[in-house]
Structures are given as structure tokens and as C-alpha cells.
Design goal:
There is one protein chain. With 200 residues, this protein is mainly α. It has a domain of 136 residues: Orthogonal Bundle (Tetracycline Repressor, domain 2), CATH 1.10.357. The chain has nine helices and no strands. The model has no long low-confidence stretch (mean pLDDT 86). InterPro entries: DNA-bd_HTH_TetR-type_CS (IPR023772), Homeodomain-like_sf (IPR009057), HTH-type_TetR-like_transc_reg (IPR050109), HTH_TetR (IPR001647), Tet_transcr_reg_TetR-rel_C_sf (IPR036271).
């Protein structure tokens, strides 16, 4: 099997694990059930991942890498820090909404949270956002609040809306993408000094 074929199969396994966890929770995920869903034997599945923890580590790591890359592209391509922060918040929302199964696996299932990811992988995307917050503060575009606190507020705003959209069926948030964009702009507006204008 070529490296590309191996990577494609591992990605397929990770996607199937996400669907199982979303439908039944982490406790319901087993290598046997995962193999059955993929049309493989349990022995064949173990050639790709030794345990279900390895499957979930791969899922979390790949997802976080993808988000970090999206944030880095914005950081590199958008010279205005406030505009970059707004775009990063929208990108975070788009990432979560693009695959809500993956979002659940990475961030919502408490058992998955017990899996230890390397610090750099778990925090790389957050550090990109925090660095952009620091740039905005150095340019006097944000209030003098600790940059960690501002970064947490920005992430929490987006993730709170996404969690509400995918877990509280009784609240109609069918237009969640524009709502995330509106919340991003409104949250930033509350964090800038009164004499700073956020460009349209």
C-alpha cells in the first residue's frame, strides 16, 4: 500500500469513528464496531490503528492541524489585525460547522478530552489567534485586557454558538453562518476602545 493509499484509508477510518461517536458517544466506539462499519475485519483495522485511542488521537490531531493552517493563512494574508481576528473567528465557525461530527469528537465528548494531545498540536491554532490579538493591542486597537482573556472570549463566542446550533434542536439557528459572522463583529466591537472604528 502506498503512503497516499494508507493516508486515505486512515482518513476513512477517522471519519467513520466520528460518525459512531456522534451517534452513540465515545463509550460506544469499539474497534469491532468500527471495523464492521468499514467492511473490514478487526484484525485488518488494527494494521492501521492499534487502539480506538489512536483513532481518536488521529482525528483530533488532523482536525486541529486543519484549523491551524486556516488561521495561519489569514494571519499571513490579512495585514489589518482587527479584520484578521474577525476572519479567524468566522473561519473557526466554518471549520466547526463544516463537519459537526468531527467537532463533537474533538471538542464536545468529555471522554475524548481525556486523551492527551501534544501541547503544540492542541494549542497551535490558539497561539496564532493570540498572536494576532497581541498585534492588535500593540496597535492600540483593543482594550488593555490580558491577551489570553481576549483570545478566550473570541473562541468562546464562536464555539458557544456552534454548540447551541448542534445540540439544542428547539432553538432555530438555521442561518448559523451569518450569525457567527455577526457575533464575531459584535464581540470585537465590544473589545475595541471607543475611538477605534472597525472597518466594514
Amino acid at each position: 500500500m502506498s503512503d497516499n493509499e494508507l493516508a486515505a484509508m486512515q482518513a476513512r477510518i477517522v471519519r467513520e469513528a466520528g460518525r459512531i461517536v456522534q451517534a452513540k458517544g465515545y463509550a460506544a466506539l469499539s474497534m469491532r464496531q468500527l471495523a464492521a462499519g468499514l467492511g473490514l475485519t478487526a484484525g485488518a483495522l488494527h494494521r492501521y490503528f492499534p487502539t480506538k485511542q489512536h483513532v481518536l488521537l488521529a482525528s483530533c490531531g488532523a482536525a486541529l492541524d486543519e484549523l491551524t493552517e486556516a488561521l495561519r493563512r489569514i494571519e499571513a494574508g490579512e495585514p489589518k489585525p482587527l479584520r484578521a481576528l474577525e476572519r479567524m473567528m468566522v473561519a473557526d465557525g466554518d471549520f466547526a460547522l463544516d463537519d459537526t461530527d468531527r467537532f463533537r469528537v474533538v471538542l464536545l465528548d468529555p471522554d475524548v478530552g481525556e486523551i492527551e494531545l501534544p501541547d503544540t498540536k492542541a494549542l497551535d491554532g490558539y497561539r496564532v489567534l493570540q498572536g494576532t490579538v497581541r498585534q492588535a493591542q500593540e496597535a492600540a486597537l483593543l482594550r488593555p485586557i490580558p491577551n489570553h482573556d481576549i483570545a478566550c472570549i473570541l473562541v468562546g463566542c464562536v464555539h458557544g454558538l456552534v454548540v447551541m446550533a448542534i445540540t439544542i434542536r428547539e432553538i432555530d439557528v438555521s442561518d448559523i453562518e451569518p450569525l457567527v459572522a455577526t457575533a464575531a463583529r459584535a464581540t470585537l466591537r465590544g473589545l475595541v476602545p471607543s475611538d477605534v472604528e472597525i472597518e466594514p
